[in-house]
Amino acid sequence: MLLIKNGRIITLDKENPFIENGFVVIENSKIKKVAEGTPNLDEYAKHEVIDALGMIIMPGLINTHHHAYSAFARGCSFPEAYNKNFTDVLQNIWWKMDRKLELIDTKYSAYVTFIESLLNGVTTVIDHHASYGSVRGSLTAMEEARNHLGIRASLCFEASDRDGKDKFQDSIDENIEFIKYAKEKKSGFVSALFGLHASSTLSNESLKKCKEAESKVDSGFHVHTAEDISDVHDSLKKSGCRVIERLFNYNILGEKTIAVHGIHTNKREHELLKETNTVMSHAPESNMGNAVGCAPLMSFFEEGILVGLGTDGYTSDILESLKVTMCLQRHNMVNTNIGWPQIPNMLLENNREIVRRQFGIKTGMIKNDYEADIIIVDYMPYTTLNKNNIGGHTLFGLSGRMTNTVIVGGKVIIKNREFTEVDIEEIYKKSIEVSKKLWAKLQ
How far apart are CA 133 and CA 138, in angstroms? Predict the structure, then answer.
């Protein structure tokens, strides 16, 4: 049993959203008790006690779209990578890099990405992987890192035609094998989707093959959609319809599927997303950095689409992406009166529903019988914090690097900014060694 005491508790439970001073009791992997005041310490004399010292106790954060494989691009130069458009970015940077990734690169990219996620208070990551240099066994390599660190993760491999038929078939097999592994595991810590890169790199025949394979395991898909206008043009050329409608025609959409970006989509496509109960994940910094446009979030909200928040490899600090989302939407629409409370709710409410669909667990709330995914954040508000302004403090006050303690499934992973069982210095030392070898192959 574990007791966390003396904290301001943001429960995200609408029945009791905020406790000024309270405590949380964890038994095994679940939250057993949430209460106001000071606990009777005699009851917990034989158990671990964490003193939150007036800090914020809140649910662990969730990232609904990440790319761990991109980690070793940090600081790397890509010769002749003059990019006129998004297609150039893919060809000159990301596809060039993922063709050189070996299993050791994949494993340590996952390690450092998951470490950074945990340090920023993220306890669950939904990742979208590519490593056409070594397809088979890549998700298992990521799973080894995930399991060692104790984070929750949903993994997939992005199927694509871009490297030929053999690699395409490998990507199908890698997805199916890992989906079966995750289903058999039934741990609540690892899940899997069937990854697709994007409509633009998949032929009609390939989409058909992917759906046929996925239908045998019923996992749902994780796919980039209409990120760039070129994706729309390609879809119209191949099928005579836009991206979302093309995916709909191949039965790719559905409540287990995560579509990402959706920038160049129209009202009819939004209706299809709503009709099929498909999730849309938004990643603002990536959209801005790649100069592909601004997602129509307000239209998504109005249509009743479940919209989650991700980072797309740009950062592992999901709170940073929350701030950027609000700024980008208001800047793009030249309107300071939009996005409230929908944008904070993407992170605080919608992301947990996406995890429920993917993992079949209750998390993202400090409430009895929920998974004990909890963070303690070293945030001392200099204005009143209460049940009515949690979103405002989350948006404008909190940042990932304020995270002091991280608990996943009842296990203390980080305490006082230090990993309790994992030597991350050794992992970082190894990752530098591995990344140097990768960089040499990219020159």
Answer: 10
